[in-house]
Design a protein that fits this description.
- The chain is an alpha/beta fold and 170 residues long.
- Helices cover 19% and strands 20% of the residues.
- The strands form two sheets. A four-stranded mixed sheet has the order 4-7-6-5. Strands 1-2-3 form a three-stranded mixed sheet, covered by helices on one side.
- Strand 5 and strand 6 form a beta hairpin.
- The longest helix has 14 residues.
- The structure holds zinc ion (ZN).
- The site of zinc ion has 8 residues, from loops.
């Protein structure tokens, strides 16, 4: 029996993706960075170098270096020695990249998930119908364009009077 030689372990991109799916969003721990659609590309070269390309959710988010470090660490934890993490803003991140499962978890967490950017444009200029994540009422009003970060808006529900955060669709 030959012992496996670590230098010849062939990492599959799917293995890397699975590890990245365990990394929570730095601002919203109930969803992962892959749920949010931040990881754009994973490549494994013949020489074993792993390159991960990600797009931060909003260029104004302060968590860029946190995400970068988390990605690098997660890949290294798999036993990969040669890791490169790239960030790209082209194309820019869009809320449409958030997967359906994550939208539901955002709602349960108390953050109104963003509407698809293509919806609602016929009627309103200020796009998305936002629902209260607690009672489901559409009877909400925006109290500030930006929440604690550039990524979110603050709302208050006219039905249950609860303030909540909503994603700005971009
Ligand atoms: Zn409500």
């Amino acid at each position: 029996m030959e012992a496996p030689n670590p230098s010849t372990i062939n990492f599959q991109p799917s293995t890397i993706w699975a590890a990245l799916a365990q990394i929570p969003d730095p601002e919203i721990p109930v969803v992962s960075i892959t749920d949010m659609g931040m990881v754009r590309d994973v490549t494994v070269s013949d020489a074993g170098r792993v390159t991960v390309t990600f797009t931060p959710t909003f260029s104004g988010c302060p968590a860029l270096h946190v995400i970068r470090d988390s990605i690098e660490q997660a890949v290294r934890d798999l036993g990969v020695a040669d890791v490169e993490v790239r960030s790209t803003l082209t194309p820019p991140w869009t809320t449409d990249w958030i997967n359906d499962d994550a939208r539901e978890r955002l709602r349960q967490y108390g953050i109104a998930p963003p509407a698809p950017t293509g919806e609602g444009q016929l009627i309103q200029l200020d796009a998305e119908p936002t629902r209260c994540p607690r009672c489901g009422s559409l009877n909400v009003c925006m109290t500030a364009s930006f929440g604690p970060t550039l990524c979110k808006r603050m709302y208050v529900c006219d039905n249950c009077r609860e303030p909540f955060e909503g994603f700005k669709s971009v």
